[in-house]
Amino acid sequence: MALWQNRIRDLSRVLVSPQADNLAEQYVLEPALAQLIMDEAEEILGGVPHVLLTIKDGVLMANAGIDRSNAPPGHAILLPDRPTEIAWEIKTQLESQTGRKEIGVIIADSRTQPLRLGTVGLAVAVAGINPIKDYRGHPDIFGKPLRITRSAIADNLASAAQILLGEADEQVPFVVIRDAPVQYTEERIRPETMTISRQECMYMAVFQEFSNRTRI
User: Fold this and answer.
1) Taking CA 50 as the corner, what is the angle to CA 71 and CA 44, rounded to the nearest 5 degrees?
2) Residue 44 · residue 54 · CB < 8 Å
């Protein structure tokens, strides 16, 4: 979708600030790419050579979602713009063309997970389905009520679709999932509905604790 929206940036035309130059030198990045990451990220937490750990749209991700793969040489692709609105537009068009009313749309991307090799799916935006199933209060197999478990339905479906969407030259623009156990809704689901606060997030809480220790 980002390609369709022309969210492509020519790195040779990016004006690089001294801060981006310093960041590029520290983490072995192209200065223009470092500048784009600075422009797109809400926060830069650190990084390793060639990759910055950032927060973008409330989500922990590499390089603010900016990708050099599947972009023309010398260019980079940003995350889609207005993904929720686009998801609803696609849903409305599909319903009009098919006559069906229970259609869900997921705008998906790929992401990495801490200490896990490989990428999985990430639901950037949804329309028509509930992205989260709340299991809190439901009994487990021994009758104990679950306290914190919530299933990321949209992310799980995005991961399943990612197998067919691929990461290289597959050129599969979309995947149709049938008979998924989802709850349909006409409520406009905001992307932040699929995130949790920093206080609740185990990773962010540990980062904050480590940061506080290093400042002492």
Assistant:
1) 100
2) yes
User: What does the pLDDT look like over 71-121, one tens digit per residue?
Assistant: 999 999 999 999 999 999 999 999 999 998 899 999 999 999 889 999 999
Please state the CATH superfamily assignment of the domain spanning residues 1-81 in this structure: CofE-like domain (3.90.1660.10)
- Burial (0-12, 13-18, 19+ Cβ within 10 Å), 169: exposed
Q: Where in the chain is the domain with CATH 3.30.1330.100?
A: 82-216
Tokens of 203: 């990773």
The rounded mean pLDDT for the chain is: 93
Q: What is the torsional sign of CA 11, 79, 28, 121?
A: negative
Cα dihedral: 198, 199, 205, 209 (round 10): 120
